[in-house]
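Before the break, one more example. Copy the sequence into your notebook; we will annotate it together after we see the structure.
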Amino acid sequence: MITEIFYHTDNFCKVFESKIETNILTDGKNKRKRSHKLSLSEIMTISIYYHYSGFNTFKDYYLKCIQKELKQCFGDLVSYNRFLELKKKASLPLALFAKMLNSVKCTGVSFIDSFPLSVCHKKRSSSNDFLHGLKAVVS
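Here is what the structure looks like once it is written out:
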């Protein structure tokens, strides 16, 4: 499965990076283009495969699954903290890749993995009217 994910993300990244390269606006100054140990498609593959891995936290997944079991699938792995920095740069391509996949008709169950965000302290939750009156729409 990880090979299939990499195949699709790598094909997407080739097109994405060529479009960005030709259409990016610059301020006229030459900027250094650093190469990373992990390619954009590898970063996206690791991020996407997490949702299929069954791990509860991304940190456990990266340290136990990627750095130990799947190390041979990737060239030079970086530390967990460095990967989190690189993952930020992959957020736009990941969003576009997901949008591209969503343009295809959904044939199964879709879900979003998230964590709760506390709006206010529990003592003051009754006075909070941030989403008051809105009803959840389930489709």
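The chain has a mean pLDDT of 76. The longest helix spans residues 2-23. Try to locate both features in your own notes.
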